[in-house]
Amino acid sequence: MPEHVRVDIVAPSDLWASAIEKLPQLVTRTVTTAVKATARVFRSCEVCVVLSDDRELQLLNKDYRDIDKPTNVLSFRGEPLDNEEESYSVGSRPMVLGDIVVAYETMEREASKVPIPLADHLMHILIHGVLHLCRFDHDNEQDAKQMETLESAILRELGVPDPYSPPSHTQAHGEKDDGKADARRLPETTCVEGV
Q1: Using one digit for the tens of pLDDT, what is the confidence trace for 79-104?
Q2: pLDDT value of residue 189
Q3: pLDDT single digits (tens) 13-29
Q4: What is the full DSSP assignment across 33-86?
Q5: Right CATH for 5-82+93-160+185-192 from 3.40.390.30, 3.40.50.300, 2.60.120.10, 3.40.50.720
């Protein structure tokens, strides 16, 4: 487990700060909890979170994925992970896990559509981004299930409802559940290999 997780937050979009109270604390707590929960990082590390907008994500999406439209999040992997707990760092420089860039407008639309609080959606997407930085993927059903299970556990630790199996309408209103509730899935996210 890492001794320290440094979270750098860059917010070129003012929309984030006005929409979510105590935003820096939420981002830092979410990223730190997610990194530690992966059990794949054994030394101090650094993650940069960029709270941006659709315009920037569209440019990045076009540059790195050749898709000319905004997306909710892109993760850019940094240094390779160490393979064992006995790893060390030279000069005590933290390992750079990578960057997570999030688009406000897309995230807000997605959260409104589900509906869930924007803060909860941001926490989920940050966790998903951290898992990509820590070399988790969802290229096949087994890997996707592993990621979803870990995301749900981290969200639970942070006090956020599981986005993969939410309560049904009847459960939310104290009525008996008939067992036919559909699980809602949040939009896919993307990891871009290191730049």
Answers
A1: 887 665 544 455 567 889 999 999 99
A2: 55
A3: 999 999 999 999 999 99
A4: HHHHHHT---S-EEEEEEEE-HHHHHHHHHHHH---S--SEEEEE-SPPPSSTT
A5: 3.40.390.30
